[in-house]
Specification:
By secondary structure, the chain is of the alpha+beta class. It contains four helices and five strands. A hairpin with a 3-residue loop joins strand 2 and strand 3. The longest helix is centred in the first third of the chain and has 22 residues. The chain is globular and about 45 Å long.
Length: about 150
Amino acid sequence: MSEPKTTTVEVRLPTRMGYEKVAMSTASAVAKLMGFPEDRIEDLKTAVAEACINAIEHGNRLNEKLSVGVVLRAGTDALEVKVIDDGTGIKTLPAKPDIDRKMHGEEGPRGMGMFLIQALVDEAEWVAGSDGNSSYVRLVIRLDKDEG
């Protein structure tokens, strides 16, 4: 038996808002090639956009001298996406946002990104950079996800 094939696609984005759309399009194209259904591709696009915006805004602190790396690894049954920035990463995940408070204007609209990412993909992991290493978020979406 042969080893399962993995295809890797890498994109480097400028640290500028709007370029997350390039990562969304790339992730969408890879997911389509893998046979993901359209609703899962939409989930993936949203999660990738959120991760890229966080990398641009919080990781690289809008420093245009830095870039954001996006590495997609397509396996036989899952797509892994790493969004890499030059920040130190987050030490602890924020508390789950209170949706009711946000809906009633009692909390600001911000702070939903990480929660949204976790809700849209099968795995989400935030890895803080150390000793000069970049930090990244790792997203995994599986082909065999139950529909319904």
